[in-house]
# Entry
Amino acid sequence: MDETGKLLYINDTELRWLGYERDEVVGEKHISDFFTKEKLPVFQCLFPKLIKDGAIENVEMVMVRKDGTTFPLLVNASAVYDPAGKFLYTRAATIDITKLKETEAELGKQEVEYRLLFENILEGLAYCEMQFDDKKQPVDFVYLAVNKKFEELTGLKDVVGKKVTDIIPDIKIDNPELFEIYGRVSRGGPPEKFEIMYPL
# Structure
């Protein structure tokens, strides 16, 4: 691109993504012609910075194809100067991140579904992080997430982010096997079932 953003060259891959012939683009179009209205202000902000500072990195943009459909891109661009420091042109490398965005959206959907299941299942659930001493013995665990049924069954409230020994100070004395079992499982052992008297 020149200093205005007019396209001086475009490769076959980019033409295929956009749906244009080369003679429709080179010398005829500005890069800004391909950005969505929502992303155009990003370009207007970053392009002068690119010419001045010499580079922009990992900028997410959305481009419009000839048929009007859109697709997301990750853009890395640099400015090229002559030996005297005079600006010559910019060059950009783009990556189509459509599949990445689709994966992120699917993971987001799965996270929502997991959260709904976690919150509404009829069993009490607690997601905890084990803590070990310098001899790799389990000494405590922190509640990272619990569901409503867990709170109903145990009577424990507002436990997320707290150590169990702070919530139930005598738990290691009353239920030492709890730490042994949790330690084994958290170190990659098989799932275990056990009964415990939980102080309410």
Notes: Helices lie at 12-18, 22-25, 40-53, 98-120, 148-154, 164-167, 171-174, 176-186. Residues 59 and 194 are 51 Å apart (CA to CA). The mean pLDDT is 89.
